[in-house]
Amino acid sequence: MRFHFKTSYDHDIRLFPDRWTLSVYGALLVLMLVLPWIIDSFYLGEVTNVLIWAVAGLGLMLLTGQTGQVSLGHSAFMALGCYSCVIMMENGVPILLALPLAGVLTGVIGAIIALPALRLHGVYLAIFTLALAILADDVIVILSPWTGGVNGKFAPEIWIFGIEINRWANPASWYFLALGTAVVVTLLYRNLLRAPLGRAFAAVRDSEISAQAMGVDVARTKTLAFGLSCAFAGLGGALLGLFAGAFNNETFNFLISIQLLMMIIIGGLGFIHGAFLGAIVIAFLPQFLSILTDNLGSASIPGLETGVFGMLLIAFILFEPMGLYGRWLKMRTWLELFPFARRDMFRRQKTYLKTERLR
């Protein structure tokens, strides 16, 4: 067991709690850098898909996991990020500039849209954002001169420093683009949690009344959380559309929002690791089911993927609300404290006030 003796506030907000943790993440980064020479192109493409989903999942995790605001409309912001990035690239903007600009634009629009929803809580906020996801489909069709409508758009050629980023001809290049974006977004997310704004997010999540009593501007905090969340989702949507090669109004339907929500719940709500673990499930489970049905000699079963995802979500909500990463934390703690670990150590505590139970 490792003990962390904290003698100042700076110790509590360090990027890595100790050198061992730093070495573990450093080794993981080295492994990810050499991964294209270890696995074949098919699995490399799947890992790239995982990284793209993780970027979008970090956006929703920031809003739902850290601030406690439920959103079912992030597919609309993913579409906004995708279309804005492609339109800028078609007008000569390089991808290294178009990609962050698309994220910033999506974040600004998301913050503006969040303003009328500041007084909404719980299921009412979820309904509001779900309406955005449903309306996005019609908006894309209406703006067909820019979006291509139902015919959609094809992703333009991507060149970075003279290297073509092509999914089929050079899958490793796409992998490194997704990996670089995921690392940057993860570092931004982690440093945001260490900042006062990140502590304000947690205060609003646990109790808005208590946060107000401590001097937190709840309206401003919610707006910033929604804007930053949409910015990350826009980056993920831009990468998803470019990686797919072609997209239209049906690519970013509201089912994408449902998948994002399932992803962060299964992975572990409120944990950065949960976005990546959930992305692994979302990306690899359909492939696993396809391989399983092929080995059993049966044709594809309609609704199998949706049914399995639904059963997984119900199982995690009932038996492990902290998700995969929460289960790993419990296992690690039990092994570290064995034989002194007790079952009641992991009992869930209610963090809301009585006055907020019906909100």
TrEMBL record:
It comes from the Bacteria. Pfam families: BPD_transp_2. Keywords: Cell membrane, Membrane, Transmembrane, Transmembrane helix. InterPro entries: ABC_transp_permease (IPR001851), LivM-like (IPR043428). Its main location: membrane. It is a multi-pass membrane protein. It is found in: Cell membrane. The chain crosses the membrane at residues 20-39, 45-63, 95-115, 122-146, 172-189, 224-246, 252-285, 306-325. This is Branched-chain amino acid ABC transporter permease.
